[in-house]
Fold these 2 entries.
Entry 1:
Amino acid sequence: MNMSSIKRFSARDTNVLPSHFYNIKADLPTLPKPPLHPETRQPLNPQDLEPVFSKGFIAHEGSMERFVPIPDAVQEIFALYRPTPLIYATGLKKALGTPAHIFYKYEGAGPMGSHKSNTALMQAYLAARENIETLVTETGAGQWGSALAHAGALFGVKVKVFMVRVSYRQKPGRRILMEMFGASVEESPSPKTQSGARFYDQNPDHPGSLGIAISEALELAVKSPATRYSLGSVLDAVLMHQTVIGQEADLQMAAQGAEPDVVIGCVGGGSNFGGIAFPFVRKRLKEGRSIRFIAVEPEACPSLTQGELRYDHGDTAGLTPLLYMHTLGMDFVPAPIHAGGLRYHGMAPLVSHLASLGIIEPRVYPQEHIFEAGHLFFKAEGILPAPESSHAVAAAIDEALKAKNEGREKVILFNLSGHGLLDLNAYARNGNGSRNA
Amino acid sequence: MNMSSIKRFSARDTNVLPSHFYNIKADLPTLPKPPLHPETRQPLNPQDLEPVFSKGFIAHEGSMERFVPIPDAVQEIFALYRPTPLIYATGLKKALGTPAHIFYKYEGAGPMGSHKSNTALMQAYLAARENIETLVTETGAGQWGSALAHAGALFGVKVKVFMVRVSYRQKPGRRILMEMFGASVEESPSPKTQSGARFYDQNPDHPGSLGIAISEALELAVKSPATRYSLGSVLDAVLMHQTVIGQEADLQMAAQGAEPDVVIGCVGGGSNFGGIAFPFVRKRLKEGRSIRFIAVEPEACPSLTQGELRYDHGDTAGLTPLLYMHTLGMDFVPAPIHAGGLRYHGMAPLVSHLASLGIIEPRVYPQEHIFEAGHLFFKAEGILPAPESSHAVAAAIDEALKAKNEGREKVILFNLSGHGLLDLNAYARNGNGSRNA
């Protein structure tokens, strides 16, 4: 065994810690169409959002500054786990016999095991600064909910989570984590909101969807004066918060004299993809680098590849503003796949826009394929990807094999957005443990 | 919230990566009594162990060198995850309102989430060098088994694991991890060995113990020519392999101008404790530093506090050499507590010896107490300890509260030997999630 070629980056090289979020809107050739008020269908005013979000969040959402400062208090907490490691995939390269250089950014090293903490900490900080008592949100696989529960506990903000039923039942671990932080967790659809009761009353075992859970959380936020809503993906501000990932990766790769030929992420709402990709999209747009971008989605929820680009609500009850995005329709309920974080009918307007500009290449994989890829990666690298992240792994493997066929030393960067230690049953059920769990 | 006092060490400051293991036997005022042959009861010859262990392992076990070199190939793999972070427990300090400075070494950042990889990688490397086809072992909670399964996959050595039944059933996650690496896992006691059948035939639901599982693994190793046995704790060599933990912690603390007043670890077989403590024991023995050492064990398996110091077998069937150690008797079967890694009737001879010299202070906690401590730590620090590690957490909290009563700025160092993400059901069942899982 020759391990002498192992290169791994300092996970704690604080020189690469960003002081600002990167706002891609400052660099786009054209802007996406603006969100519309759900009733008037006129472009939204920032004030329209005040019953829903913290003012600080609304300011981030509307900002056109290229670089938005990260508050000191948030930078200090980021420094507890950032920069996350950039890992050269020696084991995977060997397993595939590819000349490609594969790097992955390991966001699973963050608290609660995924990239979601990056925006959760920022949003909880903003809420605390405005004395907001409770943040209410939805969660699919529970990565977002547990990240917000942790962030709320740190900043003294209560957290209430509507968890999509199929994940609530498949992934009890993340529910327990949320409750251990003192968050309250409801199975969604629940009978406790009008938006939920509409489905719950027909079928108390309804698997739920992110769209329904968003409606429930929003409904509660709007009804309760000291409560605001918090969203873990889709919105411009959330994607901007995630750009710490791509900024670090850029510096970490540059320090090795490397630059990616292709950047890969999985997409549900679009935030981990936007987080790793946007700083590199800037290099393509502003510095003329020929970098490709691949966004990978599940066959069961193919919004970018099969959805229509049009105005649609972000939720099922039609409470959110109309977003101009790739959508499968607000009523679409995806099959109960294990990648619960990707079961969203729409797509971040910024990702949709970049796809429509031809900058992002969407790709779709069936569930069996991503579990195989995740298992191969695990055996080669010793890190178990979350089922969501395994979509990115699968595309990285395919790109690496293509490079092998072409005999090219392509440089591949992908976002390993979270670990799958709380998804082991999903791997076992998909034939990668030797028996069912 | 004031986070400005956060200090956290570079997890990737490669200046602190040890090149050698530290062998405490070179520095002890007196040596522990030697192991005896199980049949002749005469001091063991190294050759007696050759049917059982790799020759390289036997050489480590018998070495009297103070510093034993870590092979390059193993150093390279260690460098993928070591040095592990040394974390200043800002959140815990605040939660306790203590003037104490609490540092913890986070071994859960390693592959498979615990310290066990340190010796697993070394042992798999030694086996591969001698073309040993299969390593067979036992595991309690599964941390050791998954670490060896990973190490075996890396070095091309097959791994077979007897997993204590109570853990097999409580912690399916770690079993799935082992199987995903291609290891084969048997519930112990099993009907497949004489040592197991003795218990299995009476009761197929027998909860098992580490002592029984060791007998099963040993029996299989001795019967199969290309198979050797691998042990995850207890033996001198294993404790020596773990001293990378304490050596790093010493350098990481020294770089902050800090030195511990007290060093804490949990003890089952004794390896994570020995790993963090021994380099500091050297400072006490050789440099006259007044450092205390606290070894924490579960009430259900109190070998150091209630056991007798005498020769006893390391397993239940009497196949192992006689070790001079604190023991509850080779037939002792501990209650099925969740800290499966601590359910061992004996104690590392080196830890037993240091306890008999008054250098180590043993301490015992009941299960409810350690789950409370683990939950408090989780809320304060955002890292969920394995139930085993929560024993160390509980003692660190008690020492910090004592410092508060005394108004002393005591410096506490403890080993957070593993994360508890695969033990969430145990936390939920012990009342720290809001309902049962």
Entry 2:
Amino acid sequence: MMKVIKQPGEYSYVYSRYLDPIDTVKPGEEFIVHTKDAFENRITKETDLPSEVLDEYVNPQTGPIYIEGAEPGDTLVVDIIDIQATRDYAVSAMIQDFGGLTRTQTTRLLHDPLPEKVWIYEIKDNWVTHNESLSFPWRPFLGTIGTAPNLEAISALVPFDHGGNMDVPDVKPGNSIHLPINVEGGYFYIGDCHAGQGDGELCGGALEIPAAIKLKFSLRKGKTIEWPRIESPDELMAVGSARPMEDAARIAYAELINWLVELGWDELEAYQALTQIGRLHVGNMVNPNYSLVAKINKEYVYKGRNKA
Amino acid sequence: MMKVIKQPGEYSYVYSRYLDPIDTVKPGEEFIVHTKDAFENRITKETDLPSEVLDEYVNPQTGPIYIEGAEPGDTLVVDIIDIQATRDYAVSAMIQDFGGLTRTQTTRLLHDPLPEKVWIYEIKDNWVTHNESLSFPWRPFLGTIGTAPNLEAISALVPFDHGGNMDVPDVKPGNSIHLPINVEGGYFYIGDCHAGQGDGELCGGALEIPAAIKLKFSLRKGKTIEWPRIESPDELMAVGSARPMEDAARIAYAELINWLVELGWDELEAYQALTQIGRLHVGNMVNPNYSLVAKINKEYVYKGRNKA
Amino acid sequence: MMKVIKQPGEYSYVYSRYLDPIDTVKPGEEFIVHTKDAFENRITKETDLPSEVLDEYVNPQTGPIYIEGAEPGDTLVVDIIDIQATRDYAVSAMIQDFGGLTRTQTTRLLHDPLPEKVWIYEIKDNWVTHNESLSFPWRPFLGTIGTAPNLEAISALVPFDHGGNMDVPDVKPGNSIHLPINVEGGYFYIGDCHAGQGDGELCGGALEIPAAIKLKFSLRKGKTIEWPRIESPDELMAVGSARPMEDAARIAYAELINWLVELGWDELEAYQALTQIGRLHVGNMVNPNYSLVAKINKEYVYKGRNKA
Amino acid sequence: MMKVIKQPGEYSYVYSRYLDPIDTVKPGEEFIVHTKDAFENRITKETDLPSEVLDEYVNPQTGPIYIEGAEPGDTLVVDIIDIQATRDYAVSAMIQDFGGLTRTQTTRLLHDPLPEKVWIYEIKDNWVTHNESLSFPWRPFLGTIGTAPNLEAISALVPFDHGGNMDVPDVKPGNSIHLPINVEGGYFYIGDCHAGQGDGELCGGALEIPAAIKLKFSLRKGKTIEWPRIESPDELMAVGSARPMEDAARIAYAELINWLVELGWDELEAYQALTQIGRLHVGNMVNPNYSLVAKINKEYVYKGRNKA
């Protein structure tokens, strides 16, 4: 029977090695993790004002999960096999001082805050529907996923080199996420499942759902990466998370160049190839770091080369 | 016979109302414009060092073209009908202090400059090929297109609210570009054709070609827009150009919200829709302003509404 | 008798070589220029709403003034000898979508604009006074000063490598401003005098005054600089103008290193010296480019060296 | 006899509530803390290459120190009474990928790293001297100071709302630093003493010294602040730490406005006052967040008001 992991007590609001693992998973084993939505499942109707129903912290994570055999310097590969909503509705909301077109904690301005607002969406027949205009296909993915840093405990709202709150729609079933292992056992966390999201997560709230996620871990022993990578059946991707946004773009493309160099490319030839065929889109433009995704189609990676 | 416009004397390196129009075009009339490549057609082989063969200014523009009947406050719609290369090769190059992963004139650092480097690509059978690895499909578009500002004369290297050097691959045959008219006659400029380019134009040089471009103008009298827009058969898009990159993202999405509001959407409902289904990719990350493109599929624009 | 230059017709809203010089000045000659305030002297009482009394453009400049003998590649040194207000009051105002703690044209947000507001200050006995709390010493300087670019015509609101709207309080009597000469005759412009200003010009409106300014030009023939510099009796300074603000900081310090290298310093030793004794403050945080000023006291420049 | 606190075991490289306090201090009590230099005292001569002698982490902190009676929601006021170097030399260094004019971990570029370089300075007679050119007055201050966040453990290299690695020269003897208390006991950390530093800490290494620092704590019970503040005999200051740098500037001035509002000012009048008389300089332009300091002279704070 497949292992099912549910958070035994309080969820975590940090990616931290300072917490006790809630479970242990072996590489190669398929298992299921249950997550709450980013609002802790507290918003259930459109009259629930976020400032009233939410607690101090949001974006609860399931974890840490101990990965058997994981050691600093390894790379964790997470195959996302399946995502199921564990509720028949999704929630989006504008919460104060959070979003892409509002003042925030750091972009401090003298304006009054934007209004709070909640949208409830029904999930049915592979569509997520609020009303006739706001009706979108079911495209589930994981907003927040990562491993513990070695030294820091990083808020679950922050994406950085350990993964975290990247809000990148490419973290979806069928794709593999590569994450650095910084501590023994890796201390894996996951949460913030979305029934769908546009690039940028503009208002700050995607189609938030609690979920049951089927995963499989594998380890690349002694293989070190600096920033998260994603492999889809067709593409190689690297995710950079930083501010200002151009630094996230630089990281994403520089890391993708690194990946190509590992596959045998010359650095400047890779720079040239990505100039002509690379793609670069915005994962989030709302979190403490912005996340950008640089991609290349595998067709252009392996042309004129032996397949890696 | 179709009107063919070639630059009679010197090309222009600015988007300026202070130059004399080289020709006049009527709305509704199809015509052809010839452009040089961004390197002024001066790089013809891989041993041509940019610092030696290039002049002080690059990115020569054909124009200004006077648009009959255009008045400040109108919107110009440019249908891009066709692009033909007027040479059988494309050129990419790393030029000093220009590019996405290098120090620049404003990101001033103490490093030595990166090396200069030239790649020549053959154009043949709808492919653009340097060698077996660097071989890409023919996907032509216009890197630089726009109208004159009212007051300023803006370098042809700079994208801003008048259009200019956006380097957005969606400016391609089959799509319509909407540009603000700021001066009587509009003073349209065009140049910098690319045989293809990835998002970001990473090394600073796309697949640069001289070209013959078939266009048609139409005017929306008295309809004012603040930033360039693009309409494809399937999508509505807005382009924001600014630094830091997050400001370009904010402009792009804010303008797309404006467009939806003009089509009958409520502002916060549009903010919500773009959160869930909008897309946001990078046109350029190398020019004095970065250009980002926000998009929405028309299917989601007109759902639950009468078609506009 | 001293030459007095007043704008003969319309003021200029651009730094442009495309306008006709209004007068010619010889290096070495002291002369007086009259300028309007940044609001075109249109705000005269606190009930004057900027959105009603102001025209489309603000920040009118006196110029262009032709500098005899100035050629591209020279450096212009402007000695600011004296500034006199030509009115007994100064004006500050919050105008819409302009300022350090508000949404702007490029930091586009969904907030309503901040309110408009005007403050009138009496100038008397070397104090500038609105009420008991808002009363500041008379510390006049020039907000906008520069030469024409070679190619572009740049809005008088924008600071860049030609000078322009830097809003740097060090541009004051007793100091010398070094500006690049880009076109024959230099095409000097000046305007936007302030009776005083804090670092950043936070709300977007300093203590704006019309003024009579006594200046003297000198030329350093064949000496090229890339960005404006300032010399006070005690300090050497360089001004960088860019976005994001860290790029303005990089430019300012990199240019000051260049200056030290010209004076005989080793580059990395200059980098070290500025690390320990350099100063870096914000001129403006409100204009299309931010301006930062890097400084070093001359005592540390010439220590252990022959005085330059 | 005065309490003297030395780190009993390993120094800390994070601002963390997850470590055990090394000592307890009562408000009102003067005490002395010993700190290592930012390089862990490992660089002792100019041939010590940082990449060889430094360990994985730098900037060791003394702490956490438990503050008796401190509760979340209080403000800690730290009087800096005295700083003594505990060594007769200071060290500055260029370490790889760290500094204001170099590529970094997030401003990722394809350049080779800048060279490593070490400067040793003798401390004597209130001067800090490397050679005749590099000789600066003794102006000691604390580069890193702060309290533990509630949730996160933040690297000692990062400045944010808890204080941390601000590298602000105003954190000096005679001044008081106000810090938020986020956890019971506050968990105070301190380190990174500098014998002097210019604005920005340009090359990334100030005049680094180990030190004995005399401090006194006091608590403002139930008084909450959002970002660090500094009070000198003459000035009120607020420190903002963020990227891009303009966000650090916005935070600093917005917080200083908040302070003035607490003292009875109207918000827009405070915005106006800081426009005309505020000062804004750069603490650091090298750390993961930039730190900017906004200031106002007390003379302008209390004019026309009863002294607070």
